[in-house]
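Quick start: read one record
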Amino acid sequence: MATTTAPNETAAILGACRLFRDLEPAVLARIAPHFEPVNYKAGQIVFAEGDIGNSMLIISDGEVEVTKVVGQSPHVLSRLGRGEHVGEMALISRQRRSATVRALGDFRGLVLRQSEFDAMLDEEPRFAREMLRAISDRLRRTDETALEQMVTAHQALTFSLARLADSRDPETGGHLFRVREYCTLLAELLRDHPSFASQITDEFVQDIYLVAPLHDIGKVAIPDGILLKPGRLTDAEFQIMSTHTTLGAQAVDTVLELCDFELFRMAKRVILCHHERYDGKGYPRGLQGDEIPLEARIMTLADIYDALLSERVYKPAFSYADAKREIRTFAGSRFDPQIVEVMLAHMEKFEAVHQKFRETTPELTTAD
């Protein structure tokens, strides 16, 4: 619905719009006549999903709602108000509209139609540059949103896969939640340690949080008769159980062939090496000291600390005090002594994690 607006008022409205805020007043004055003032009543559709994108809208006064049909129902994507714009991407690409824009109340706006848009691209180099910037900004925001959604989906999928393996062992309870928190806490604490500060970045902390639940994913390939055995394993059974490290790593190799990202490389290192020992007596490779990846040394300590505090058919749960003594005893043999030192200095934080994600166990005493 058309109306009239003075050229100087149109220029002022354009100047308040984020899309054109960097244009000089003289440029705004020249492009103002290309915009057509419009009025809409509450409920009227400005743009309809699926229509050809032959115009864009700048909102002068009022508010619109942007919706997209998902399944059988429209879903609200956003609400836009004074000084905001909509429809420019469909106009630039000349594609069909991806959403419907509806007036929430009476509002005024400025419409730029295809013919006028083409004319301005030819006549005003600054306008053309601003539209190019608009495309770049929209693509950047789309990429950021897509990345955030991808990371969220990856986290959910990763944890679901980890729980698939974990669910076959009825004794583990909240194990995945706890070791994830232990690993993240240790990584954050080690950032201030001179021996580890150069290795532990924000990305390292984020990645270990994501991959920690996958450490035992290889157990999906272990026979039930061994994985669920109510008691200690024989030597032969232990040899089969120990293959969960290499089997899990092989599964990640398949992922790495398609997505060679550091996140998945870390996942492989954690899965493969979390049963290595600092003294070189672990498996599967017998790595020693700093040969063991840092994330795997962190996981080893987190995994065993949680096992100590958990009840098993072959042992009772340790108290916090006993678990602390056990960790101290194996510093330098099973565990990296510097990582143990940091953990022991902050045991109350690890106990708090255990309490938060606690499984049903006998009452635990406070650490000494």
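Strands lie at 36-40, 45-47, 55-61, 64-70, 73-80, 85-86, 100-103, 107-113.
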